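Progress note, project year one: complex with 3,4-dihydroxybenzoic acid.
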Amino acid sequence: MGIVGAGPAGLMLGQLLHLQGIDSVILENRSRQYVVERVRAGVLEQGTVDLMRDVGVGGRLAREGMRHDGLYLAFGGARHHVDMSQLTGGRAITIYGQNEVVHDLIETRLETGRPLHFEVADVALDGLDSRRPVVRFTKDGAAHEIKCDVIAGCDGFHGICRPSIPASHLQTYERVYPFAWLGILAEAAPSSDELVYSLHERGFALFSMRSPHITRLYLQCAPDEDVSAWSDDRIWAELRTRLTTTDGWQPNEGRIIQKGVTGMRSFVAEPMRYGRLFLAGDAAHIVPPTGAKGLNLAMADVYRLAAALVEYYRSGREDLLDAYSSRALLRTWRAQRFSWWMTSMLHRGDSDNPFDHRRQLAELEYLVSSRAAMTSLAESYTGAPFEA
Ligand code: FAD
Ligand code: DHB
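Model obtained:
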């Protein structure tokens, strides 16, 4: 197996295959340090937590991950609690940074002794519609070629795998949102034990965390926002304005140790396969981060793909591989619907008028007063069990 990309999808796929004795080579164009320090998602569905444990990479996650049974929705000056565990028969999410997930998966991969090459260049695919597809790359100036049975494109949205598929074989669906998130990490103890998603007249804000000492916060901003225009004081003032509730709750403040802007997009490429190339994770689909689904979808994809590959290597049967794309797309579109819904309910759009704001408030008010509506949110947010 050739695996392009050492993000959560590529690394987890490598581990799932390793446990079944299937050889793979993982190729990553960035350095190990860059991949491990990249600050991204932080919400793990139950399915992701269970998978990490089942593949033997869940030790530190079990010790340091922060289980959350609910979340808060804040609007009109008040915080409203959604008890997700109670509504879903015990499902929860766990806060554990994506960079920690990647760190743990890399350590485990290196312990297996199986190949994981960082800082490769010029990765290119060939013969995808043959039974012997090829990955070419250069490392330290030397050219290499790997002849594979199958290639997994786990190289994210900007990777080379999806563009290697002839355009006539791909249908793409896309929506780009007219806003982005300014995210920070701050050295401050979380002032709430659960996440707070807030709709404010000035835009969305999100309170999250990474550890008992680190708070993670996001503000809706412009897609081309210049981070340097945001002094620490300006960030805290805006966060206080958008997050403080009338009961006096607000985030604790501290030294800001990281700042970044993340654009927001919904994107799906269909099918998630061309010949012997299978796409997984962000290489095939992107969701806006409001539903916290990106990382979890990537994990659900490779769980399904690994099961199909194991069956193929064991019995030669290809029916699970043939079903991979259509089955993975079902979960993908559900997550697309949920992420779009959360995003549109909680953000101010460029063309929104006061009617739209009142409509959003009515939707939130309905949501927190209806057990049925809250159950729907909780089911989607905690995520369905992963399927092979
Ligand atoms: P990736 O994590 O993107 O991994 C792909 C890997 O492939 C990368 O390591 C990349 O360096 C490598 N690669 C790319 N091109 C090549 C090549 N040509 N050759 C070899 N390797 C290559 N989701 C949330 O739920 N909440 C968030 O707050 C959130 N924030 C995000 C912030 C940013 C800036 C980004 C980009 C994404 C964010 N996401 C968030 C989404 C989430 O992080 C992704 O869904 C998740 O990383 C998907 O994992 P993946 O393994 O499919 O892709
Ligand atoms: C975080 C990211 C999300 O996209 C989200 O919806 C909730 C929390 C986080 O980084 O902690």
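The chain has a mean pLDDT of 97.
DSSP finds eleven helices and 20 strands in the chain.
No further modelling is planned for this target in the current period.
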